[in-house]
Write a structure and sequence with these properties.
The protein is an alpha+beta fold. It contains 7 helices and 13 strands.
Length: 220
C-alpha cells in the first residue's frame, strides 16, 4: 500500500516502498513502521532503519556556541563529539564551530531555533539530510565492509562523531553506546540516500540482517 502524499518528501520512499512495508507518518513525512514481524529479531543482528523524519537544523560560526547555549541547547565539550537533548535527539559538534541539531519532536528545538533572529557571527546551515540508523551485534561487521575506519577502536562512551565515507558516499556518523550493542547514526545528502540505503541493506542481508522499521529502532 502506498503512503499518502506527504508534506515532507522522504528520499528513501521508493526503495523502501518496493518492499511493501507498513507505513505511518512522523513530522509530516512518511516513515516505515515495520517491514514484518521479524523486525525486532533482525535489529538484534544487524538492522538498517530510516530516521529521516526527525527535524534537523544547523549553525556554524565563531559565535554559534555561545548563542546556542543562550537558547538552552547543550554544547559538546570537544569537536567531533555529540551530546543528547533532554527530550530526545542530539547535538553533534562537527569540527570546532559547526553544530548539527536533531530533535525528537517533543520540544521542537529545531523549529524554535529556526524561528529566532540570527546574531552576527552565527550562520545557519541548511540540513536536508537523510538519516539512517545501524543497529545490532553485527553492525561492526557491516562497517568493516563499507567504511575504512576501525569503529571497534573508538570509545563509544565518549560519543564520537566522524565525517567519513561509506561505499563512496560522504556521511556524518555518530557512535552511540548501548547496553546490548553499539548503535550508529548516519546522515548523508538526500541525493545519495537511496543508493546508500540499498547498498547497506544488501550487506546487512549477507550478515543475516536487513531493513527494519521505526518501531524496532527504539530511538530516544
Amino acid at each position: 500500500m502506498n503512503a499518502p502524499l506527504p508534506a515532507r518528501a522522504n528520499a528513501l520512499f521508493d526503495p523502501q516502498n518496493a518492499l511493501a512495508p507498513r507505513w505511518s507518518s512522523v513530522e509530516s513525512m512518511p516513515v516505515v513502521s515495520a517491514y514484518g514481524p521479524n523486525d525486532r529479531a533482525i535489529a538484534q543482528v544487524v538492522g538498517i532503519g530510516d530516521a529521516s523524519a526527525r527535524r534537523r537544523t544547523g549553525f556554524k560560526g565563531p559565535a554559534a556556541a555561545a548563542w546556542l547555549q543562550q537558547q538552552s541547547v547543550p554544547i559538546p565539550a570537544q569537536p567531533n563529539q555529540w551530546t543528547p537533548l533532554a527530550a530526545g535527539g542530539l547535538v553533534a559538534r562537527l569540527g570546532r564551530t559547526e553544530y548539527l541539531i536533531e530533535d525528537a519532536g517533543g520540544e521542537a528545538v529545531c523549529a524554535r531555533l529556526d524561528a529566532l533572529p540570527i546574531p552576527p557571527g552565527v550562520y545557519p546551515v541548511l540540513r536536508q539530510d537523510a538519516a539512517l540508523v545501524l543497529t545490532g551485534s553485527r553492525a561492526g561487521d557491516l562497517l568493516l565492509q563499507t567504511c575504512s575506519i576501525d569503529f571497534a577502536a573508538l570509545d563509544a562512551a565518549a560519543r564520537p562523531v566522524l565525517l567519513t565515507s561509506m561505499v563512496g558516499v560522504g556521511v556524518t556518523l555518530a557512535v552511540e553506546a548501548r547496553e546490548a550493542a553499539r548503535r550508529y547514526r548516519i546522515w548523508c545528502d538526500g541525493t545519495y540516500a537511496a543508493y546508500l540505503w540499498t547498498t547497506l541493506v544488501d550487506v546487512a542481508r549477507d550478515l543475516g540482517g536487513g531493513p527494519i522499521g521505526l518501531e524496532a529502532l527504539e530511538l530516544g
